[in-house]
Amino acid sequence: MGKYIVGRILNMIPTLLIVAIIVFLITRLLPGNPAAVMLGPQASAADIKALTEELGLNQPLYIQFVDYIGNLLQGDLGNSLTYNKPVIDLILERFPNTVILAVCALIISIVIGVPAGIIAARKQNSIFDYLFTTFSLIGVSMPIFWLGIMLVLFFSVNLGWFPATGMGSMEAGAGDFFSHLILPSIALATIPTAQFARITRSSMLEVISQDYVKTARSKGLSEFIVICKHAFKNALTPLLTVLGLQVSSMLGGAVLTETIFSWPGIGLLIIDAIGKRDFVVVQNMVIFIALIYVVVNLVVDILYKVVNPRIKYSSNKGGS
Amino acid sequence: MSTGQQGIVLEQTQVKTKNEHSLFRKLIRNRFAAFGLFVILLLILTAIFAPVIATYPPNKMNVTKSLLGIGVEGHILGTDNYGRDIFSRLVYGARISMLVGIGAVLFGAVVGTLLGVISGYFGGKWDSIIMRFMDGLSAFPFILLAITLMSVLGQGLVNVIIAIGVGNIPGFARVVRGQVLSVKHSEYIEVTRSLGAKHSRIIFHHVLPNSFAPLIVYATMSIAGAIISEASLSFLGLGVQPPTASWGSMLQDGKDFLVLNPHMATIPGLAILITVVGINLFGDGLRDALDPKMKA
Fold this sequence. Notes:
Mean pLDDT of chain A: 86
Number of strands of chain B: 0
Strand order of the largest sheet of chain A: 1-2
Shape of chain A: globular
Strand content of chain B: under 5%
Distance between the termini of chain A: 22 Å
Oligomer: heterodimer
CATH class of the domain at 68-274 in chain B: Mainly Alpha
């Protein structure tokens, strides 16, 4: 197991290096001098020159790249010009808010999606199954920014049950905190819930028709034990794959959800930084999110191995 | 061409036509896929005939008639805050959705297929380099990669297509690579190779045609994702240049008038949802008809 984990961590390194190269190349695609773009049309030539030198943009490209990688390895993500503080401080300030939102959405999606998928598989071709299939299809097709707006329209504007925007604080009471959390969490949870439900249904259908499940039933075990103890355990592996993918989807979805609900997380920070042309923040936030994604997938891979010890690590993982 | 060869060609054509008919029949028999096909055809026709269908010029402002309700003064779906006809903007918005949906997927498919073929067929260091690069590209959440690219490239239809298309490359590369790997050691490929066929002939005449079914299913599913991504970018103000009508930008405009005119935000969102549901249903049907093994 230890060898497996070390192998997977080593496997992460080239991926992260490529992520850094891609982000570096994207920011260098910017037409003209990035410093001039960041400072805007009102900036003087002296200001542009000073910022160009501060960001090292006057250096040859390969030196810029070496400096950039060197700084990343030291954890130096640079300073934000518009927020006037180190990017790492901005991340530490905003990331916990995104985590709160994402964890809440993940809990909702697992608590609703997995049991719904199990029931649909148990009652295949029933009315529940048809309704389930319809709702899960609508769920995966849902533009979450639109759903967010509709939730605001219905629950905030019409019913006045929940606040439309912002993040509550625990100091103002748990009620204030959770009332702000509910609508963005539902919006962010919609697609993952549908995905979890669909994958649970299909993997359960595959498992419950197998001989060992029939044997368990014939032994007189209760349906609850058969489903939860025998069938579900073996249907768990595909669910873990979806879990890893959903983390990526949630980090992307957080950009939209946080924008609609003015939730002060990293998604809203990226959109703000783009509006303010603060590319130092954008560049490093994107790398940070990609790092989170890669790390989460590493954890999922390890869980995969725990759930299914027959999986072997192969160093020659050329992709698919 | 000898009579025998003509006979074989004729037989192949008949088999092909029969297969196409059988595929179409399978799709039509599947009620969900048929509904999806209907939605797609409706969208394509709306996009093509937008100038005929639209009742007003989509960008024509008339502030004296702003925020009109549904059906008021000849505006089928009312007007927005600038007095622009919502129905006409919705119809023209279908053009943007279709252009971006098809354009971005085509971009991703062409580049991804090329990379997937090189990676799978030639293997070795090419495979390692390309697939590592694809791993890196996949480490970005899809929409975040598009947002980052748009923040650098700037607003515009072509840039939206490129930004979303880049995110589609790894998926296509993986699908094609997998297919190439599964057929490259087949006997018929070995025979073709031993007869002295060039790599390009083997790839374009034998390997790629065998990857067609999963590729077309994947492309169909990807169009739905591309349409949502375009709407997301436009919603964030990073998509097509205003005042071009896009469903995402219409939603963004409507967001500020939820109390006064809720249908300004409701209608374009419903259009996106119905379109994406339709494409997903058609994609599911196509997958079941073309390659039942891929069924989830």
